[in-house]
Amino acid sequence: MKTPLVTIFFLAHNYEKNLEKAVKPILEQSYPNIEIIISDNQSTDNTQKAIRQIQSKHPKVISRKNIPGINTDQFHDVDTKDTSTKVYDACLNHCNGCINSGLAKGEFIIFCHQDDIYQKNIIKKEVEFLMAHPKVAGVFTLANIINKDDKVVGKWNLPKELRGKSTYHFSEIFKAVLHHGNTFLLPPTFMARKEIFANMGLFDDHGSFGCSADLEMWLRILEKYQIGILQENLIHYRDGGRGAKYNQLRTQTSDFFKVMDYYLIDKGYIASTDKKSLRQYEYQKDFDNTLRAMNFLMQGQIQEAKKIINASFSWEYFRALFENIKIVRIKVLILKVTLFIGLNLGLGEYLRKMFLALRV
């Protein structure tokens, strides 16, 4: 079997203490033909020193410094709470910088994240898949979820309707995302053919899609190509990362809906989408609104929380709930009912203190 070169961009930022530990699984990959490029995104600690220490032991490791492709004085990263400037996604901007650097010599590219732990065979298995499926643009894998102590606390599952096969068209993935959200296309697992980015363009890192610009890229690719999903947990995905930071006390509507509304409405896919899928999508908006109401409450904005939660009950809500019932949905229903009763009985301040105590 051929062993084409794989370019591994390892995305680093302020990770001096754990960088060598994080890079170790990449250095120990079972696939033989790789080039490793550690890309440092404006670290303010001693990450550069840590990179040099790695290079002293592994001279073939390449180092680059990422320079954002935008004027960051006019933007704020999606992870921050600043609302005075336009938004950009530092991680996806970092990926774009790697693509534009011209350093990648490999036929395939993967962007490895510093918080996650990659299994020894992930590169080998993804290359084998892409070699066996020449029409597929790129491939994802599933993942275990680990906490800050590297203990496995869960796993990312593939929706039932996607199991039993390995390659997918736009319609299959789009429908699954309408039903379940973007819970199974994991960016740090994605290996792509290098020419895909030349054909499809870069991540929309400072557009209207915020931290869901990765999903927009996957859907953009799927409009022209198939993708693959290996149904193996080939990385340990760190809990409490960028997604958790983004959702912590978030009161604005999730960026996820900006992407999906763009494809449904602006691009016209709503015309070919079945009613059940649209109900499930509306359920996801309600799910998000329940979390927003809780966050408004925790920030002391009791009337705003009450306004959102009182508008959230409908027959269509319950119909969608029982069409796709899950434990997490039952938990959110309990939260919704608790908020509805408590806020309408004037117990908002009591609920706020209770939720704040539970979060601590």
From TrEMBL:
InterPro entries per the UniProt record, alphabetical: Glyco_trans_2-like (IPR001173), Glycosyltransf_2 (IPR050834), Nucleotide-diphossugar_trans (IPR029044)
Domain of life: Bacteria
Residue ranges the record marks as coiled coil: none
Transmembrane segments: none
Domain Glycosyltransferase 2-like: 8-64
PANTHER family named in the record: GLYCOSYLTRANSFERASE (PTHR43685), GLYCOSYLTRANSFERASE 2-LIKE DOMAIN-CONTAINING PROTEIN (PTHR43685:SF2)
Protein name: Glycosyltransferase 2-like domain-containing protein
Organism: Candidatus Staskawiczbacteria bacterium RIFCSPLOWO2_01_FULL_38_12b
